[in-house]
């Protein structure tokens, strides 16, 4: 992965790009009038472009541009504010002051909703194993402005960690989170979901194993949640109780922790 600036750059953009390069230990490349396609061909790597309002990533794996935006989380947050139910919050039984570990952060839509649900007294940690998605999520959560102070505060509270979930869980203390959450890439694609499609090419393909779930059972105090395609075999294979949702393309599974 390398980082550069937009074509029309200035000293502020250049400084920000260099700061990000130092922070994430990636290479900064002067644009020097070169097109992004030329740079991609020359360096054969993902490119992060520092713009005035956001970071944009481009990859040889996909023609899509990838950038941080809370997307549906904004809509879901408005519904929560109107006291409507959110399926993820309901199934996780998230309440003020609870802690949750999101093992598959992506671009953090569910973690933002979790942060709203647990409030200032709660804790949200998000794990992202892909360095590019990690960078976009961490920088986006820290800088995106929605115009809603409560929503922005919820984003800022999320702790973003660049790690693969099994390794993190192995090192985590027993009973250190109320809820452990998994949202792995579906084996079956969801038609019409362009946002997810853009992330799919970058997401880790590590299989969710029984060993990982066993570690999650040790780390979670209350429950483990799995979000997966409604046809997925993982619910039954890994011991989750599947809660079916009419017309929904994905379902949630739950393992309740009993002592």
UniProtKB/TrEMBL annotation:
An example Gene Ontology molecular-function term: rRNA (guanine-N2-)-methyltransferase activity
SUPFAM superfamilies: S-adenosyl-L-methionine-dependent methyltransferases (SSF53335)
PANTHER family from the UniProt entry: RIBOSOMAL RNA SMALL SUBUNIT METHYLTRANSFERASE J
Protein's recorded name: SAM-dependent methyltransferase
Lineage start: Bacteria, Bacillati, Bacillota, Bacilli, Bacillales
């Amino acid at each position: 992965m390398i980082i550069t600036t937009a074509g029309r750059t200035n000293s502020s953009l250049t400084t920000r790009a260099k700061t990000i390069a130092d922070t994430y230990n990636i290479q900064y490349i002067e644009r020097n009038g070169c097109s992004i396609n030329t740079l991609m061909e020359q360096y054969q790597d993902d490119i992060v472009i520092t713009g005035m309002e956001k970071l944009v990533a481009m990859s040889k794996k996909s023609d899509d541009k990838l950038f941080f935006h809370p997307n549906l989380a904004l809509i879901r947050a408005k519904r929560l504010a109107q006291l409507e139910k959110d399926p993820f919050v309901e199934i996780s039984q998230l309440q003020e002051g609870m802690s949750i570990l999101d093992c598959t952060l992506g671009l953090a839509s569910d973690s933002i909703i979790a942060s709203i649900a647990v409030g200032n007294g709660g804790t949200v940690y998000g794990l992202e194993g892909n360095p590019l998605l990690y960078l976009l999520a961490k920088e986006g959560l820290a800088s995106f402005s929605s115009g809603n102070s409560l929503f922005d505060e919820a984003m800022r509270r999320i702790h973003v960690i660049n790690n693969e979930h099994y390794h993190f869980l192995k090192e985590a203390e027993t009973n250190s989170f109320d809820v452990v959450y998994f949202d792995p890439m579906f084996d079956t694609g969801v038609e019409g979901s362009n946002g997810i499609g853009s992330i799919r090419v970058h997401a880790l393909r590590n299989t969710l194993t029984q060993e990982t779930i066993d570690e999650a059972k040790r780390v979670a105090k209350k429950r483990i949640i799995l979000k997966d395609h409604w046809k997925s075999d993982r619910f039954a294979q890994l011991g989750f109780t599947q809660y079916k949702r009419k017309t929904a393309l994905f379902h949630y599974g739950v393992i309740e922790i009993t002592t």
